[in-house]
């Protein structure tokens, strides 16, 4: 039946190619038998064959057959059976066969296929293919056993001969004769003999026999043979491949298969690398669904691919050794062959994963269960790529999700990623589409923790893959850049920049792709434009100029944009041109000593020409000129330019600045202006005559005059000087001086103390009497002055001399004073647009909406306005500029004390930030000066104050506010969001151009360096308020308290805590590489308490830091500051340590703050929106950290709110002073939300729970339901719309949690604890009735914000009724339950009249949860009398609408 599957052992051509020498060699070694009986036997054998149709041939000619093989077999069988000598004739026949095949040539002929006999040149009717003679004889049942024995006896004779001429292996041909027989007469005997042969044969023959076993043996022998093969596998690992090949083809029982697989897994470590793919394939293909997880997990642990491949360095040295002639041993696999083996292993895994879903799930589970960084291996990443590459969307998504989780938690490290790409590049090339897709997904992810890994995958892929892959990668990065998503664009540009730096030659091939981004620059931020032109200019104009083919295109684009009249394109042109200057004019490195490092004259000429072009193009408007100065300053700061280029830029800067903006200080000022000109803010009055002054007021007046003339006259012969360029030009001058004189600013230090031509600032007090142009002129003058001082501080803040530090401090005081004047001036100038200060963004970006500009506060707010200082910070994380009303007493232009104490009206400068020059990070070093508070001024040190540089409170607040804005911009990771269709009016990065040049790690390091200083200021603030408290006997609102100083010190206190919170909250600390930075930061805090903090372990550092910060709790000046401290403690405790102890302390601290009465410096209670927001967050922190949420909720709701109800109208709760009628909604909302969250966290009921566990859960639900009942009933007292809204929203959520988690518990507990269950349900039905009344009340009010909640709530109420019925039925108490119609009532319990007709015929029957029948009557009577039972309206309001839940 299997004949069609037979194949010839060898081709017929092989027969003809055998050599006669080989034939003779064996025959000479054997002596033929000469007994007469043998001749007789042979004659019987030959005669029978001849008569049956086979002619035996001698020599190299094949035996011939002239009948079909079936006919031949039939004839032989008949002749033997009909012979009178039967059965003896069979013995004679086989003896004849034996003597015939004594001759090796004859034996060989008998093993090879017979050929059809030709008759007279014509082909016979026989089939062209015939089996060998021995194969045909094996098909005769009576001869089979004899012939099998003969063949197996002959086999050892040829074992050691190897392969003969023509590639024939006699042992293999003998074994092939036994394959696929129609019937095996004695399978067991045959199996035993074959296994005997295996034990003595050489390896090649062993392999042939073992691999043929499945084709030789019957199924009945498979299990026995498998056991023997399994035993053999343990002894001889050389036979691993053939044995596994055979085992995979045998039909085995599941138990035996498991046993065999276990044995195979045990030998996995000893298997040769070349054999490993077969082993892995066998293991995975023999897995059943039930044991897939266990097998895959073991395989993953034992598969050490890292040992399969040599590191590249060793590979190189090995290949070098081979090339020198010292051949490595054959056993050492070459790098290529080991890569091939790994590829085959992965192919085996891939086929298993593709065809067996259970295996793919098992791999995912095996990797999920690994929770140590060290335990993750290369195989994990490779399998994730395989899973992602398979067709199923499910496995692809699962692989992507798992990879993100592992990367987010830091379990898959960048080092592992690098190792995988470095060592397995050849293997991974086949999974390139998946790697690219994963990298794209990671780069687009809103999670900032996984985005860098997308970048690493791009970078490593570009490094190790071929040019086709590199092209795809660059194309993909270009697509990211053009996507318009901020974070994605930044990361892709950064990657392109890194690739251009590391692989300039390879990237040059794809320069044309990158150039295509130029068409998509319209929505790029200035920093992105800089980065793009940096990449392109490095490619086109770098030292090696690999991408020179795009030089002309770059020149064309830049010239086109420079000549544009549209400001946006001109800005792009200026930025791009100066980036090209940076690349063309970069300093050359000396490769050899003899080589000239300077640039060629031609390149220098091109750079000079381009600089001249940009300069001339930017002179058309003041904004363009200012941008040119700023970008040139950035270039000098960030690039190392060739000395010739540096000198060319610096050559005329100092002279031009002096000519444009500086005049000699004379006794009088020529010219007449809107305001009388006056020289002000001179710090060098003691010097002799011949000083200088900044010519600001005349320049501004002239600039306004020029703008007026521009309407009539378009061309001017001379270059105009605009005050807009003053600060940018000075920045350029300062940086040129620093470069030329190695940081020494002696040439220009006169500009620090030199005065400005301004006007008398008393005019600000008379704003109402000025005309609109005069007001705007005054505001513009103030903006320019403040920006000049800010740029001066940027320049000179690094100087160490005491005199210089004093001047810098005075300039800071000037700024804080001028800002108070500016606030007053702006409040009286409606619709005013300040001069631009940051020129790289849209000039309209910072425009203040007219409606928001003069946010004037009226006097009726009184001190309430002042108290908002801390609140404003927490909401906007923003400036306290509007609160800096105080200035240092030593200022020259200081108003009298009375003026200072006036309550003035002003606007917040927070919304005008974009119109101030950016302060550098270095300015924050000024914080290292001590703090001078007004309380120190009253001491005897007043006269000696100037000997040491001290910060005033206003200056401290100014610097801390700027620091907070910087750390929030750099260290707060905003998720990547797609740009809206209509671009927002304000770009978030405006005003942070210099900050964007630094990485978040640099900013974090800078903050950590300043931590000791920040801690000192924090302690100073603490001591300040401690002193006030001790002087005033614990009261902060004594009449003598200085209100403004109190405000400033509170603001400073709060800003310090916010800066610390933002720093410690940086997501970068979670990355493995930044743990040392975190330890250093915590070490600073811990070191304030205990010396030697650096040597402590992380847990101890966190403990001591926490203890240090908790010490500040006693001096919190406001609730918002207290909230900042609580958030900081919460953030620090999350970093590790003893979480339980820290949680308890955080909760008790929050409770302390909530139980404290908060008053302003003037003695009024704190109140307002900001206070409520802070209270909301603080209450949440308390309930999230407290051990027993339900108990805490009951404490507040039961005690605190009851006290509030009984208190007078304006009074608060005695136990919780923050709980008043104004803050009730805040408390109510948080209590409901946290109660619902706590109910969701109650563990569900399990069948395995014992009685004690069930009782504990039932008790928890009892508490939760009691709290819920208290909170729902409060709506009767506090019935405002927001309170009802909260009750409806969270009431439904609590009800759903109860149905899902609570009711199954009641099902199981009813019989054992029926009283408790009944009590719980009675309490709960009171709450559900109140909710039902609320639904009716909402419909009467016809308020959509309330009625939106009604349908879903009604649905849940009805579900509850039927769920209770199901519970009673389950416990055989269904007769204790009935349903009636519940009348609709309002909050007061009055029936809603429109429903009277429906309910008039029926009494208000109840859903009654009664005890067993004997107790039923008594309870019924109670329920009927009291109307406090559970009902459901079955006719009204079972709405089927979509139950959407709108938040209030």
In short:
This protein is an all-alpha fold.
Task: Characterize the structure shown.
The structure is a single chain. This protein is mainly alpha-helical. Helix content is 59%, strand content 2%. It contains 63 helices and 9 strands. The strands form 4 sheets. Strands 1-2-3 form a 3-stranded mixed beta sheet. It has a two-stranded antiparallel sheet with strand order 4-6. Strand 8 (930-931), helix 45 and strand 9 form a beta-alpha-beta unit.
Write a concise keyword list for the protein shown above:
63 helices; 1448 residues; single chain; disordered C terminus; two-stranded antiparallel sheet; 3-stranded mixed beta sheet; disordered N terminus; mainly alpha
